[in-house]
C-alpha cells in the first residue's frame, strides 16, 4: 500500500502559509486552504498562458435523497433493507437538474468558453483555459507548487470563488485547491518487512501464525470456510492503480504453496478503466490484493480492475472507477481498494466530498465498498517522525465506505500502523453515533483538542495487517499494512454474499449500518494502539467496543453469517 500512499500523497505535517482569502464582489468563496502539504514549496505565480484542463463537478439533483435511499436499503431494521437501487434509480437522484446544467453552461458560454458535458450521469463539465483566464473566472491566483522530492510542479490556487448565482450549482472545480503528490511508481513500496519467509505450508497451524500469516491462518483465526463458493453471479472486484499489476504466475505459485486444496490455475478476470492494463510486471500491492482474494474467497469470481493513467477526475481515477461501476448493470457486489490519500486535508473539502458522493452511488447499487484505512496510524497515511496533530486518511474518512484497519499477533492486537481517527470534513453518521460517543466518553480528556469528536470515526472493522506471506516475482515474502486487511475482509464479505445469493437473499451492500447494528459478529480487539510513527503523540488505544484503531473488530465468520440471517 505504501507505494500508493506515497504516490498520492501529502504529508500530514502541514506548514501554515496563508491567511484568509476575501472573494471579489458578486462572488462567493468556494474553497480555500490555509496551508500547503509539507513536501511542497510555493514557487510563485504560474505563467499566464499555461493551459489548464478544468473540470466542474455539478451538484446532484438530490444528493440528500440519495443518502436517504442508501440508508433505507442498507439499514437492517428498515422494511426496504436489501432493495438496492438500479443505475437508473441512482441516476434520478445523482444527475444534475436541468437548471444546474443550464446555469453553469450559460455562465461558461457568457465567458466565451467552449466546454463539454461529460460523465456517466452528465455531471461534469470540462474545458481548457489559460491560467490568466482561470484567475479571472474563479477569482483565483494560480501558483506553481513544487513537490520537492520529485520536482513535479502542480499549478494550483490557495482559494477560488464562484459567481453567487453559480455557487449553489457546483460541488467542486478541479484543478484548484487540492495539492497532492504526483504518482511516482519509482518510489517503490516501503513495506515493513519483505524478507524471505520461513518454510510454511498449507497445513500451517495457528501457532506459526504469530510469525507468518497464510490463508490457513486466516481460515483458522476467523473461521473462514475453505469450501468453494457456488454462485457464479457473485463477483469480487480488486482495484489496481499506479501501474501495479497482478501476476498470474505469482498467483499460481502462491496457490501451489499455500492453497494446495484448490486448483493452482485459478485465475481472475481483468477490467480496464481509464486505459488500465495488466502487464507482466510484478507489483507487491497488486499481488497481495489478488492473492488474498483469489486465495481466500475460495471459488468466488474475482476481477482485477486496473485503473490507468487516462483519468481526468482530478483524483487519480478514484472517482472514475466508482462512476463506471455504479453505472454498470451488474457491478461487482464487493470492491476492495488498498490505495488512498494520506490526508483528507491535502485533497480538500470539496473534492473529497464529491468523491465520497460517488461511493454513495455504489453503495446504493448494493456494492460493499471497502478501503484500507491507511498505514500511518493516527498521523494519516504516511510514516513521519514528528506529527503535530492527528490526520484522517481518505477515502477512509468517507462515511459511505467501509474502512478496514489492521491487527497483528495471536491473540490479535491493534497493529501500530493501522490508520484511524476522526474526520474534519464528514460528521459522525447516525449508524455509528453510539459507538463513537462511547469511545470518546471512555477516553475522557485524553487527546482533547487533537481530534474532532463530531467527525466520522474510522476504521469500521479490522483484519490482520502484518507478516502476511505473499509471492511476488517468484519469491515468497512477508508484507505489512492495511493493504492486506482490506482484501482479507472483502473476501469474508464475498463468501457471505455467496451464501446469501444461494439462499435467494439480497447481498449485504453498504456494510456500515449492518456492522454497527451487529457488534457481536466481530472479535472485539481490546489491546494495542495506532501511533504509526507519530511516537511523539501516541495513538488511540484499542478498547472494548468500537475504537479508532480496529473499529468493531475482526471477522467471526459464523457469527457474521448469523447476523446476515443465515
Ligand atoms: C526450507 O526447505 C528447504 C528445502 O526443503 C530446506 O533446504 C531448508 O533448510 C528449509 N529452511 C528452513 C528454515 O527450515
Ligand atoms: C466465533 O464465535 C463463536 C461463538 O462465540 C465461537 O464459538 C467461535 O470459536 C468463534 N470463531 C472463531 C474462529 O473465533
Ligand atoms: C469537526 O467536524 C465537524 C463535522 O464534520 C466539522 O463541521 C468541523 O468543521 C470540524 N472541526 C474542525 C476544527 O475541523
Ligand atoms: C443508540 O443508543 C440509543 C440509546 O441507548 C438507542 O435508542 C439507539 O437505538 C442506538 N442507536 C443505534 C444506531 O444503535
Automatic annotation (TrEMBL):
<feature type="binding site">
    <location>
        <position position="545"/>
    </location>
    <ligand>
        <name>Ca(2+)</name>
    </ligand>
</feature>
<dbReference type="InterPro" id="IPR030400">
    <property type="entry name" value="Sedolisin_dom"/>
</dbReference>
<dbReference type="GO" id="GO:0008240">
    <property type="term" value="F:tripeptidyl-peptidase activity"/>
</dbReference>
<protein>
    <recommendedName>
        <fullName>tripeptidyl-peptidase II</fullName>
        <ecNumber>3.4.14.10</ecNumber>
    </recommendedName>
</protein>
<feature type="active site" description="Charge relay system">
    <location>
        <position position="483"/>
    </location>
</feature>
<dbReference type="InterPro" id="IPR015366">
    <property type="entry name" value="S53_propep"/>
</dbReference>
<feature type="active site" description="Charge relay system">
    <location>
        <position position="285"/>
    </location>
</feature>
<feature type="domain" description="Peptidase S53">
    <location>
        <begin position="212"/>
        <end position="566"/>
    </location>
</feature>
<keyword id="KW-0732">Signal</keyword>
<dbReference type="Pfam" id="PF00082">
    <property type="entry name" value="Peptidase_S8"/>
</dbReference>
<keyword id="KW-0645">Protease</keyword>
<feature type="signal peptide">
    <location>
        <begin position="1"/>
        <end position="19"/>
    </location>
</feature>
<dbReference type="InterPro" id="IPR050819">
    <property type="entry name" value="Tripeptidyl-peptidase_I"/>
</dbReference>
<dbReference type="GO" id="GO:0006508">
    <property type="term" value="P:proteolysis"/>
</dbReference>
<keyword id="KW-0720">Serine protease</keyword>
<keyword id="KW-0378">Hydrolase</keyword>
<feature type="binding site">
    <location>
        <position position="524"/>
    </location>
    <ligand>
        <name>Ca(2+)</name>
    </ligand>
</feature>
<feature type="binding site">
    <location>
        <position position="547"/>
    </location>
    <ligand>
        <name>Ca(2+)</name>
    </ligand>
</feature>
<dbReference type="Pfam" id="PF09286">
    <property type="entry name" value="Pro-kuma_activ"/>
</dbReference>
<dbReference type="InterPro" id="IPR000209">
    <property type="entry name" value="Peptidase_S8/S53_dom"/>
</dbReference>
<dbReference type="GO" id="GO:0046872">
    <property type="term" value="F:metal ion binding"/>
</dbReference>
<dbReference type="InterPro" id="IPR036852">
    <property type="entry name" value="Peptidase_S8/S53_dom_sf"/>
</dbReference>
<dbReference type="GO" id="GO:0004252">
    <property type="term" value="F:serine-type endopeptidase activity"/>
</dbReference>
<keyword id="KW-0106">Calcium</keyword>
<keyword id="KW-0479">Metal-binding</keyword>
<dbReference type="GO" id="GO:0005576">
    <property type="term" value="C:extracellular region"/>
</dbReference>
<feature type="active site" description="Charge relay system">
    <location>
        <position position="289"/>
    </location>
</feature>
<keyword id="KW-0865">Zymogen</keyword>
<comment type="function">
    <text>Secreted tripeptidyl-peptidase which degrades proteins at acidic pHs and is involved in virulence.</text>
</comment>
<feature type="binding site">
    <location>
        <position position="525"/>
    </location>
    <ligand>
        <name>Ca(2+)</name>
    </ligand>
</feature>
Amino acid at each position: 500500500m505504501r507505494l500508493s500512499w506515497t504516490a498520492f500523497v501529502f504529508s500530514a505535517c502541514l506548514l501554515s502559509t496563508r491567511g484568509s482569502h476575501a472573494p471579489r464582489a458578486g462572488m462567493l468563496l468556494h474553497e480555500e486552504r490555509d496551508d500547503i502539504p509539507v513536501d511542497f514549496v510555493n514557487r510563485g505565480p504560474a505563467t499566464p498562458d499555461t493551459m489548464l484542463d478544468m473540470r466542474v463537478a455539478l451538484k446532484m439533483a438530490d444528493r440528500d435523497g440519495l443518502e436517504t435511499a442508501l440508508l433505507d436499503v442498507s439499514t437492517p431494521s428498515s422494511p426496504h433493507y436489501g432493495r438496492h437501487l438500479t443505475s437508473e434509480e441512482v441516476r434520478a437522484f445523482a444527475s444534475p437538474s436541468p437548471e444546474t446544467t443550464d446555469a453553469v453552461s450559460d455562465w461558461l458560454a457568457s465567458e466565451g468558453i467552449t466546454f463539454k458535458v461529460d460523465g456517466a450521469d452528465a455531471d461534469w463539465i470540462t474545458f481548457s483555459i489559460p491560467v490568466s483566464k482561470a484567475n479571472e473566472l474563479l477569482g483565483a491566483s494560480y501558483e506553481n507548487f513544487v513537490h520537492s522530492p520529485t520536482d513535479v510542479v502542480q499549478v494550483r490556487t490557495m482559494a477560488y470563488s464562484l459567481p453567487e448565482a453559480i455557487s449553489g450549482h457546483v460541488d467542486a472545480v478541479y484543478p484548484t485547491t487540492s495539492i497532492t503528490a504526483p504518482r511516482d511508481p519509482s518510489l517503490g513500496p516501503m513495506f515493513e518487512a519483505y524478507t524471505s519467509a520461513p518454510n510454511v505450508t498449507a497445513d500451517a497451524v495457528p501457532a506459526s501464525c504469530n510469525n507468518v500469516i497464510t490463508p490457513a491462518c486466516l481460515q483458522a483465526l476467523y473461521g473462514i470456510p475453505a469450501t468453494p463458493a457456488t454462485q457464479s453471479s457473485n463477483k469480487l472486484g480488486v482495484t489496481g492503480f499506479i501501474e501495479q499489476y497482478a501476476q498470474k504466475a505469482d498467483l499460481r505459485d502462491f496457490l501451489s504453496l499455500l492453497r494446495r486444496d484448490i486448483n493452482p490455475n485459478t485465475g481472475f478476470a481483468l477490467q480496464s478503466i481509464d486505459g488500465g492494463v495488466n502487464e507482466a510486471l510484478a507489483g507487491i500491492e497488486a499481488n497481495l490484493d489478488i492473492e488474498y482474494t483469489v486465495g481466500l474467497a475460495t471459488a468466488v469470481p474475482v476481477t482485477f480492475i486496473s485503473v490507468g493513467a487516462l483519468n481526468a477526475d482530478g483524483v487519480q481515477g478514484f472517482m472514475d472507477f466508482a462512476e463506471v461501476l455504479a453505472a454498470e448493470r451488474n457491478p461487482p457486489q464487493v470492491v476492495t481498494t488498498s490505495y488512498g490519500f494520506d490526508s483528507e486535508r491535502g485533497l480538500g473539502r470539496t473534492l473529497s466530498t464529491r468523491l465520497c458522493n460517488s461511493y454513495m452511488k455504489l453503495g446504493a447499487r448494493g456494492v460493499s465498498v471497502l478501503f484500507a484505512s491507511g498505514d500511518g496510524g493516527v498521523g494519516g497515511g504516511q510514516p513521519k517522525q514528528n506529527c503535530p496533530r492527528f490526520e484522517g486518511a481518505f477515502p477512509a474518512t468517507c462515511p459511505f465506505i467501509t474502512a478496514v484497519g489492521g491487527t497483528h499477533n495471536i491473540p490479535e492486537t491493534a497493529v501500530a500502523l493501522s490508520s484511524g481517527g476522526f474526520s474534519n470534513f464528514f460528521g459522525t453518521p447516525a449508524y455509528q453515533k453510539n459507538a463513537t460517543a462511547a469511545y470518546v466518553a471512555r477516553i475522557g480528556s485524553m487527546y482533547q483538542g487533537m481530534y474532532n469528536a463530531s467527525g466520522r470515526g474510522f476504521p469500521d472493522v479490522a483484519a490482520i495487517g502484518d507478516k502476511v506471506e505473499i509471492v511476488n516475482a517468484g519469491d515468497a515474502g512477508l508484507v505489512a499494512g492495511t493493504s492486506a486487511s482490506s482484501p482479507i475482509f472483502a473476501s469474508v464479505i464475498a463468501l457471505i454474499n455467496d451464501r446469501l445469493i444461494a439462499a435467494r437473499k439480497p447481498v449485504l451492500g453498504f456494510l456500515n449500518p449492518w456492522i454497527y447494528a451487529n457488534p457481536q459478529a466481530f472479535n472485539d480487539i481490546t489491546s494495542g494502539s495506532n501511533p504509526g510513527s507519530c511516537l511523539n503523540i501516541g495513538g488511540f488505544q484499542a478498547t472494548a467496543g468500537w475504537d479508532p484503531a480496529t473499529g468493531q473488530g475482526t471477522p467471526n465468520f459464523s457469527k457474521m453469517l448469523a447476523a446476515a440471517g443465515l
